Amino acid sequence: MHALEAQAFGTNCYVIAADAGAECVIVDPGVGVADRVSRLLKRQRLTPAAVLLTHGHLDHVYDLPLVVGAAPGRPAAHIHPEDRYRLRNPAGDLDPAFVTMIEAQLGSRAVWHEPEVVVELAPSCTTGARAPGVMATLSVAGLDISVTHAPGHTEGSVVFGFDEVPEGPVHPAGSQSEPPLQRTVLSGDVLFAGAIGRTDLPGGDPAAMTRSLRDVVLAWPDSTLVLPGHGPATTMARERTSNPFLRGRLV
Questions:
Q1: What domains are there in the chain, each with its CATH number?
Q2: How many Å apart are CA 68 and CA 61, to the nearest integer?
């Protein structure tokens, strides 16, 4: 597992592989990560099997065309059907001056085109029995990745989960009182360390976010490693006791 922070908005892009020389998945290629992803793939001899998108906001998909275009085989981009429309023009909801500011920061113009292959994350993706609350399971790059719809930040926000727990810099320093970590969740902009995703952006819905936190997030066991779309890694044990958005008001 490798985590790369984007050049704008602090978005986390994750590259997940069982080992060097294996297939991998790329999650949320944000602003200015394409070159670093390419170098990482070459250094680790990784072959992208899929690009997974937690949602379609610009800061999570900005470098998607570059990442897909440079990868052997042009891997498919996977996104929830309700956020699929955002891939037609992710900057469509933004003030043009804001996009210009990003371009000035990067020193290059935004170049967008839809990926050649887009897979909508729907129950038809499911292989085998569907776990409660899980809408799909993807078997890719040697991983069985659960996909759970968790709207609120956007209509089609999802979280990805798998049983392996990576070692290395993405692994938070845990307290001795916390249980051993047994599962990993990529929470996108649903849950952060000490916070939750905004609901005042395009596609946001406070009531839907409350339901997602109550029905999806609080169902995760304390032994879950949480890798958010922004900020540091955390654990469910830590968030259950210290995150003010999870304590009290959701019970």
A1: 2-242 (3.60.15.10)
A2: 11
